[in-house]
Amino acid sequence: MKYSKQRELIYNALAENKIHPSADEIYNILKNDHPALSLATVYRNLNQLAENHEVLKVQIPGQKDRFDCDVHEHYHFVCEKCGKIFDIKKECLPMPKGCIVEGHRISSLDLSINGICKECASSEKDY
What we know:
Layout: H1 5-15, H2 23-30, H3 39-51, E1 56-58, E2 66-68, E3 74-79, E4 85-89, E5 100-101, E6 104-105, E7 112-115, H4 118-123
Parallel strand pairs: 3-7
Antiparallel strand pairs: 1-2, 3-4, 5-6
Helix pairs in contact: 1-2, 1-3, 2-3
């Protein structure tokens, strides 16, 4: 992949925002300081970065794709109340590569866990 100043700008904005932002959120972060940047450019570059394994595309059913600069194997926790996405260390739910599950050999695992984050839980009276 050839170097692109816009791609570097988009990657840096993603790296500075550990909230697993969508392309729209990255665009909104950058548009005031970079008015020539288009939303289509942000989408295209994030997808290229994901295809080249430089970022992760986090796909949550019913939501826009989110992006993550941490390309190490890990899982995601999605709060059902506020929609925030948190990283979960792989060690918390180990599933070794090569493990056989019902006759199928696992090569990788893409896991999202849904629930209520501790911030939202502490604000609920019934929790």
